[in-house]
Specification:
With about 150 residues, the chain is α+β, with helices and mostly antiparallel strands. The chain has four helices and five strands. Keywords: Membrane, Transmembrane, Transmembrane helix. It is a multi-pass membrane protein.
Length: about 150
């Protein structure tokens, strides 16, 4: 049976790989919280309940205090107009509908190997080919499309 500090360390490694798979700079703080719990166990013999409290408190304190710093440091920056440039290059191009699009609810399209939200004034079924008309929202993540 592995020791408790090793288990906490391995839990941290799992959180680290999960952060790499789903970037959002949230799970990394739970990784750090796991490692802090492992260090606490190396320093003193604490109960399981206290280990969980150390893990949760450390994770949440780090999340709420350091996430902005991490986002500024590692988040990257877009040049002004980058969203408009992408949508301008996409206008007139064809894409494949991967989730049905309805006038009341956006669907999803596959364009240039990535999945994007898509909005249309008519219902478009999954598997249909559409033409991109332009940006569908201010966030730059949704395209307005029409059936081919």
């Amino acid at each position: 049976m592995p020791s408790a500090p090793l288990v906490w360390f391995l839990i941290g490694v799992v959180f680290l790989f999960a952060e790499l798979a789903m970037p959002g700079l949230i799970l990394i703080f739970f990784c750090f919280g796991s490692w802090i719990a492992a260090i606490a166990l190396l320093v003193a013999d604490v109960s399981v309940q206290l280990q969980l409290v150390i893990f949760l408190v450390a994770s949440l304190v780090l999340l709420f205090t350091l996430r902005r710093v991490f986002m500024r440091t590692f988040g990257g920056r877009l040049k002004d107009g980058a969203d408009k440039e992408l949508s301008d290059r996409a206008v007139g191009r064809q894409a494949l509908v991967t989730t049905a699009i309805r006038p009341a609810a956006p669907g999803e399209i596959k364009f240039r190997g990535s999945f994007w939200r898509a909005a249309a004034d008519v219902e478009i079924s999954e598997g249909a080919t559409v033409v991109i008309e332009g940006p569908g929202s201010d966030d730059g993540l949704t395209f307005r499309v029409r059936p081919l």
